[in-house]
Write a structure and sequence with these properties.
alpha/beta; 13 helices; 16% strand
Amino acid sequence: MQEDGSRHGISHRPREPHLGAAAVLATRPSCPVRPTSESRLSSGSCRAQELILAICTSLFIALWTKAVTRPTNDRGGECIVVVFPSIAKSRSCANWGVVLSSVSAETDQEWVVEAFGRLARGDDSSFAHLLTAHADPVILEDSRTTVRTHFLAVDPNGQPVAQQLANTMGNALLDFAIPRDRIRSAWEHLQTTGATDQIVALQAEARDLLVRSDTSGEGGELLLFLLMERVLGYPQILSKMPLKTNNSMHVHGSDGVHAALRDDGILDLYWGESKLYENSTKAFTDCFESIAPFLDPERYDTRERDLLLVREHLNVDDEEIVAHLIRYFDEGYPESIQVRWNGVCLVGFDISSYPNVAVAVDTEFAKIAEQVERWHKAIRKRVADNNLLSVSIDVFCVPVPSVMKLRQAVRARVGAQ
C-alpha cells in the first residue's frame, strides 16, 4: 500500500538574493580559482589574522546563504565562491577560495522530489469520511495489483451519502480540468485586485468542458482524480480536458496521467482509468481493456503517444521542476530510461440492498466478504487477460446504489445540467 504523506499547495520559491561584490558565481564546483600574476606574493606567507578573519567571515556568509537562499540557489552542481583579495595575494594561498554552497546532484534530487510531491493538491480530509473501507487493501495472487474496496458511508437515516460524495467530486472540477499555471494566474489576479472574475471564468470554462450527457464517464474521472491526488498523493501532470475541441466529445485514451518522483531518481507514471457502469462485469472488462494499451510492456506505440502529450502539455507551473521533468521525456537524456509505468483504476457499479459496512454484524459482513471476493477474482482475471500481471496497478472498487443518479448529482453540482 502506498504511504500517504502530508501535502501542501503549490510552493513558489523566493528570488535569489544578491550577495554583493565579494561573491562570485562559479559555473562548476570542480573549477578552481586560478592564480594570476597579481595573486602571488613575492615573499612571505599568509598572515594568521587574515586567515582567521577570512574563515570566520566565510562561515558567517555560508550560514546566511543557507538560511536565505535554500532552496533557491543555483542547481546542477553550480556553487558560490567567495574570494578574499588579501589572501589571494599570498604565494602559498594563491588557490584559496571559500566554497559557500555546493549543490550536489543528491541535494538537487532531494529538493526536486520534495517540491514535486507538494504539487499534489489538498488531502483526503474532505471526503475520507464518505467512503468506508472494507478490510485492508489486498494484493491479488501472482500479480502486482492492489485492490481497495470502499462502500459509501450510511447516515443515521439509513441513506448512503451519494449526494455528499457528488458534491465533493464537483468541487474538484477546477483542479481536475484547468492547468495549474492558469489557476495560479487567476489567484494572483485575485490577490492583486481583489476581484474573483478570472476564477469564476475558469470555473465556467471547466464546466463547459464536461460532456453534456448523463452517460458520460467524467463523473468517474473526478473521483479517480481525488483518489490519485488526495489519497495516493500522485500529482496530476497531464489533464486531457483542456485538449478537447468541444463538449460533445469524450477524451480519447486514458483519463489522465499522474506521477511520483522517487528518491532514487525513478519517475513513476500512473495512467488513470475510471468506469462507472450499472453492471460490474462490464465495468471490470472495459476498465482493463482501456488501460492495457498504456501498460502492456509490448504496446510501446500507444504509451509513446501519451508521453508526447505529457511533454507538450506538462501540467506543472514551476519552471525548475519542469526543466527537471522534461528530461524524462527526451531520449537524449539518461533520465528517459528511468521511467516506470503504472496504473490506477476506479471501477464503480450498482448493487442492490446497499449495505452499511460500518455496522454490519457477522452474518452480514460474511455476505459482503463473499461479494468482495468475487470482485477480486473478476479483477484478477482481467489483469491476466490483458497481460498486466507484472505491472503495478492500484484498483479502487467502489460499488454505489446508482451510478446514473451519482452522475446526475455531480452534473447538478457543477451546473452542467
